[in-house]
Each structure stands twice: as C-alpha cells, then as structure tokens.
C-alpha cells in the first residue's frame, strides 16, 4: 500500500510541475518580447548619448580578442567602418608616436591589475589629421579577479594644434570611472 501512495504523490507532483512549466512557457514569449524592447531602448539611449555627447564607445573581449568600436569611434579616427575595428596593437598605433608609450603603460597596467584608467593623448587619423582625445577605460574581471574585458569611451577634445600653432592641451573632464564589478 505504501508504494501506491508514493506513486500517487509522485504523479501529483509531476502533474503540478508540468502545469508550472506550461504556465512558464506560456509567459516566455511575452518575457522575450519585453527583453527585446528593453535591449532596443538601451541601444537607442546609448546611441543618443554618443551623438549628443560626442562620445564613442569601445570594448575588448580578452577571451576572444574581439574589439568593438562604435560608429562614433570610427568617425573620430576617420576609419572606414567596412575595415572593421583594428587589432589592439594597430589601435595603439593610432596614437601619436610621442604618446604611445604612455598609452601602452596605461593599458598594460589596466590589464595586469584591473585598474580603470584615463588619459589625454593625440591620435593620427586615417586621413593624417592629428586630434586630441580623452580615453577612459574600465576593466571587467571574473570571480578570480582576472581581467576578461575592457570597456571604454573616446571623447574628441579638439585638434592637436590650434590655429596659432600652440598645442591644445585640453584637460580631461569628468569624474574618473570606477568599476563596481565583483
């Protein structure tokens, strides 16, 4: 008799679980639609912020070595988006030769320790124009503290040389980015 009760309880439990799964599956399409709308809203907001603020975004996935540049970063560098984002070494070669060592140190320190960074430097665009930019980067680490990605922004602050020939040393503006990732 005890095995019959067990089978009855098991059958009721499986029936309840099946009902719960069916209810959840019924909600799945609407939840997916909500997620799609939320992603689109976030993307639209980010694109508006880039355009209105003159900011370009970029990221590096260190596991895949994939680099992402937003349209604005391509515009700042005057690089044809059809070429895709450059590899990391090629991206650093955009910086003025006198600034590359400082840029490389900042990036190396960030990758080694997970530190955020900010610097102002000159870049040489694909069309040869020299511009001053501010770059800010924020590292994402995994649970062991290993840096797995870097996210950042570029802000074009002007041409590297003003009309009178003086260097445009516009200071970086804004607060330092701090990561809240754990």
TrEMBL record:
Region (Disordered): 162-182
Enzyme nomenclature, EC number: 2.7.13.3
Catalytic activity: ATP + protein L-histidine = ADP + protein N-phospho-L-histidine
Keywords: Kinase, Membrane, Phosphoprotein, Transferase, Transmembrane, Transmembrane helix
Gene3D superfamilies xrefs: PAS domain (3.30.450.20)
CDD domains: PAS
InterPro entries in the record: PAS, PAS-like_dom_sf, PAS_fold_3, Sensor_kinase/Photoreceptor
Entry annotated with the keyword Cytoplasm: no
TM segment ranges: 6-28
Coiled-coil zones: none
Domain PAS fold-3, first and last residues per copy: 67-152
Keyword Oxidoreductase among UniProt keywords: no
Name the record gives this protein: histidine kinase
